[in-house]
Amino acid sequence: MNPYQNLPDNSFWAPAVAQKSMFDILEIWDPKHKLGLATKVATYGSCFAQHIGRALKQRGYNWLVTEPSPLMMSEETAKKFNYGVFSARTGNIYTASLLLQWLTWARDRSKIPDEVWVSDGRYYDPFRPNIEPLGFGTREELMSSRSAALDAFRDSILQAGTFVFTMGLTESWFNRQAGFEYPMCPGVIAGEYNSEEHQFVNQEYPQIRQSLTKALRLMRAMNPDLRILLTVSPVPLTATNSGRHVLVANMASKSILRSVADSLARNMPFVDYFPSFEIITSPPFRGTFYEPNLRNVTSAGVAQVMRVFFECLSKKYPVAQRPKPPGLKQGLRKILGRGRPIAASAQGVGSSTDAEICEEEFLDLHRTGG
Questions:
Q1: Residue 277, Cα to own-chain centre: how many angstroms?
Q2: Where are the domains of the chain?
Q3: Strand partners, 173
Q4: CA distances in angstroms from 256 to 47, 96, 107, 209, 370, listed in the order given
Q5: Which of 99, 200, 202, 262 is most buried, judging by how many CB atoms fall within 10 Å of its CB?
Q6: 8 A C-beta contact, residue 126 and residue 120
Q7: Element (H, E) at 62
């Protein structure tokens, strides 16, 4: 007799993984908390977080947007100007320390630096460099927009029942003297890089865990009933400044983020983790859900992730959901059976308008090596 003899099949690799089709590996998440159709859900983080908000909305859940686009603005224009991408117009929040910085500023505006980048007569927000693709017309317009985003970010925490945060990067950039963090290296999207002023920090496990713990506790102080759902982005690094091969740097980065998420989910009752990272990157899925560039996740991959999410959720906490997209599983099988890559335009699983806005991809524009 030993402890393994009476374990269920999902504790063993062969019956739970190897002997199943990738489309039947579904019951991999045991959600801690109920997510009802009326529960307000705020979403922030790395690029992949954008898919979660859209999926919630499409399924009839209450995706919370506290900074909506102006009246009469088209959906295409709204997305171009980063409305309805996250719950507020923050841009990508790639790191736990950047999330903590947003929370600190939302509570105490006196700590916000007044730094602004100017290029060709246009004004760019160092902390949301891609929020206005052509920059702001005046400094005052930029500051007003930043203030509105902070208000909306704070309101989303106060109103939400669930806060979803997708962890993306360990590599980060700081102002050496003032200590505040930029979401991107200065000079990539806007601004100018200065080695004496700007500092690269590849954050390690203790720093990330500490920052995220502080952020989660701060949110709970603002909203004692708030529940947190962590995910890790399956999208690899566009580039690394670590000095290592990007493949090795990416594995180190994602492993650290996954470890932090696991630790907090196991030790904080109000924190849960959803394995979107595992669904896209694990061996059983054979890289099927990546585009030919081996970085971007196909719309079919997003659909599979959200299928697992909603099926696990509804099995434990049944709710009256709107009908599922027709023929998703069969459609994916058919596409794969033809030996074709799953394109973003695959019928029934997404469209080109679903492509995420990912500021990190601007790094590839600066590549000069062969």
A1: 11
A2: 26-284
A3: 182, 200
A4: 18, 12, 29, 9, 29
A5: 99
A6: no
A7: strand 62-63
